[in-house]
Write a structure and sequence with these properties.
Elements: E1 2-6, H1 13-27, E2 31-35, H2 43-58, H3 63-73, H4 86-95, E3 99-102, H5 110-118, E4 124-129, E5 149-152, H6 155-163, E6 171-173, H7 188-197, E7 206-209, H8 219-228, E8 234-238, H9 243-256, E9 260-263, H10 268-277, E10 280-283, H11 287-296, E11 300-303, H12 310-320, E12 328-329, H13 335-338, H14 355-366
Parallel strand pairs: 1-2, 1-3, 3-4, 4-5, 5-6, 7-8, 7-10, 8-9, 10-11, 11-12
Helix pairs in contact: 7-10, 8-9
């Protein structure tokens, strides 16, 4: 069975889920591919994704205005109004999918219709929503009653979809969609081996500083504050592809006597062990990072410096519904004070594989209209 997954590089969670699903789908002996119609399409759509990522890094507060504009602009609701679709059409001809699935709110309508119009065979459509809960950032574009299935990552996600008009019988809670290592159980030997390879002192607790896929972080501000407050804590800072930041952190640690290990982009296996080992995770409340923290039960403090994006509020709402107090910071320099407090964590146990989602997709592929 052939699956075409629609995604976008806005943030990091969409692509993370798309790649995870593709890997699982192929593990089950199926074929599939990922298409990014906005990133690979009309230049204005490409600029829109780049602007989103700029906002996420530089001024998250502004996304409240950008989000509202996108909610009501209906840029991709109707297939006839979508511009620059030649690459998308080429993808459809090459893949000839039996099933099309979107992990992005703005790819659930017009692109579905366009794919069905061009497909030489009946084409089923699925929405996978990675939002963790309802909130001001739960886009109305997630809801497409004509889709064959709405798969949510939590019960709260599914309830939000039904309240907004998705037929109840088409909604399924399929659980978190993550990279394969997060479905396993931590093995102490492999965890310690990973920490040794990364040169992390496994005998000492450490603070894990996360960075978004597009580089959103406050690592330097946090480390300066830790040094000024005389905090003797091991710091593991994830720098992604930002080698300039990695060098600055390493140099700062050496000059101030702070134990800072600056790491490049980590794979799923390394992240799994890091999150199972960290005494605290500090990062933005994006769905991708918070979902991985939930799978590992990692204590987390949310970085909301520069404001909170609407979608991030959804994820914080999930935490608010499960713990007495969610810890968040508008000023990253204040982190040392919060480290003295009890840091909340939530653990969601995952099955060995995302069998429910894969099973539903497989059933749709074989189902006659």
């Amino acid at each position: 069975m052939k699956l075409l997954i629609l995604s976008s590089s806005t943030g990091g969670g969409h692509d993370m889920r798309a790649k995870a699903l593709l890997s699982w789908w192929q593990d089950y002996g199926n074929q599939g591919s990922i298409c990014r119609p906005l990133d690979e399409g009309f230049f204005a759509y490409r600029m829109g994704t780049q602007f989103y990522n700029f906002i996420q890094v530089r001024m998250p507060w502004f996304h409240h205005f950008y989000f509202r504009f996108l909610e009501y602009a209906n840029l991709h609701r109707k297939s006839g109004l979508i511009l620059g679709v030649s690459n998308f059409k080429q993808n459809l001809r090459q893949v000839r999918p039996d099933l099309i699935l979107s992990v992005h709110a703005h790819l659930n309508h017009g692109f579905f219709d366009l794919a069905k119009q061009l497909s030489p065979k009946p084409l089923k459509s699925v929405v996978f929503c990675g939002e963790l809960a309802d909130g001001p950032g739960f886009s109305r574009h997630w809801i497409n009653p004509s889709a064959n299935l709405f798969a949510g990552s939590t019960e709260q996600t599914c309830h939000a979809a039904v309240r907004r008009g998705m037929p109840y019988e088409k909604v399924e809670n399929c659980g978190l969609l993550l990279r394969s290592p997060f479905y396993g159980q931590p093995e102490e030997r492999r965890r310690l081996s990973c920490l040794r390879t990364l040169k992390i002192d496994s005998e000492s607790s450490f603070l894990l500083l996360a960075t978004g896929a597009n580089g959103a972080n406050r690592h330097l501000e946090v480390c300066r504050s830790l040094a000024e407050n005389g905090k003797e804590i091991q710091v593991v800072a994830l720098c992604g592809k930002n080698m300039v930041l990695k060098k600055k952190l390493s140099d700062f640690g050496q000059s101030r006597g702070l134990r800072i290990l600056a790491l490049p982009q980590m794979g799923g296996e390394e992240m799994f062990h890091l999150l199972h080992s960290a005494s605290c995770l500090f990062g933005r409340p994006g769905a991708g990072l918070t979902s991985e923290a939930l799978a590992c039960g990692t204590p987390m403090i949310f970085d909301i410096s520069g404001g909170v994006m609407p979608q991030e509020i959804n994820n914080m709402n999930f935490w608010n519904s499960r713990v007495e107090e969610v810890l968040s910071l508008k000023n990253a320099e204040d982190l040392p004070n919060l480290l003295e407090r009890r840091i909340p964590s939530i653990k969601i146990d995952l099955p060995p594989k995302p069998e429910k989602l894969i099973g539903l997709l497989d059933k749709l592929c074989h189902k006659d209209d």
